[in-house]
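Write out the 3D structure for:
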Amino acid sequence: MTARMGGEADYRQASAFLADLDPDWAWLVRTVGPCAHAPKPSREPYEALARAIAYQQLHARAGDAMLGRLLASTPGGGFPAPAQLLALGAEGLRGCGFSANKALALLGIAEARLSGIIPSGEVAATLDDETLIERLLPLRGVGRWTVEMLLIYSLERMDVLPADDFGVREGYRRLKGLERQPTRKRMIEIGAAWRPHRTVAAWYLWRVPATPTEFERNRRSAAPDGPA
């Protein structure tokens, strides 16, 4: 079983570890402040995957609107159980605003939960990261990044680096002043130095300041004075 987040003490330990790596990481941790990662462990893997599918390649507001219509169509307003989602069908999902492809992906996820391919949260907690990734990757609409978000936000895994994530690679590029983003392979190699705190490292990289001039100004001001 892979280690889970234990609370603020784990975040503080991870932040301190990262800040000790080099001056750039020390600046980032100091600038962003304490890690405020907010996982949602109450969400079952089925719901987490379905929500991830809903938001894929969409602005957050569009995803919110579609999910809002889906929840409104469910008795009680909660997230629909797999059987309820299947009863809604492709036509009902299209009525909520989902594309044909997303509707099919959502129905496939519902079927996979009922068949046991998607485990319960209790069972998923006993599986290591790669085992769960390999188990869920064959599902329509589910990629490695989708499962990594499940690992980070629902299963509270401590050491997940979504190396395909644009924000992680772009954050590292800006942090280090690189001309180009690292490739996925290179990002994995670089991230090995952040074990066993790669989830918190990703959290900080998502928050590297986006304005280069502001970032460089702050970075220079944080550097130690040179010889007079």
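Confidence is low (pLDDT under 50) at residues 223-228.
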